[in-house]
Specification:
Layout lengths: L1 H34 L20 E2 L6 E2 L14
Length: 79
């Protein structure tokens, strides 16, 4: 009697690994294959965000400001 329940528990765990784990592993493998640097003709799936450089700082609170801003986003003072 004990052997049957242990066998069914093992079969259930194996089925869960195949149903849940295998698709996750395939998705991870696909994303890795598409984003690796070995193929320059493939565009990146996750583009890298461009960093903006602060041109100047607010004279009222010192927050970094981007070029073209007319008001400080922190304190609202005119630039």
């Amino acid at each position: 009697m004990m052997f049957g329940s242990t066998f069914m528990l093992g079969f259930g765990l194996l089925a869960m690994v195949l149903v849940i784990g295998l698709p996750i592993a395939l998705i991870v493998l696909l994303v890795w294959a598409l984003t690796r640097n070995g193929n320059p003709s493939m565009p990146a799936i996750f583009p890298v965000a461009q960093r903006t450089v602060a041109a100047h700082f607010c004279s009222n609170c010192g927050t970094a400001l981007q070029t073209g801003w007319s008001n400080c986003p922190q304190c609202g003072a005119k630039v």
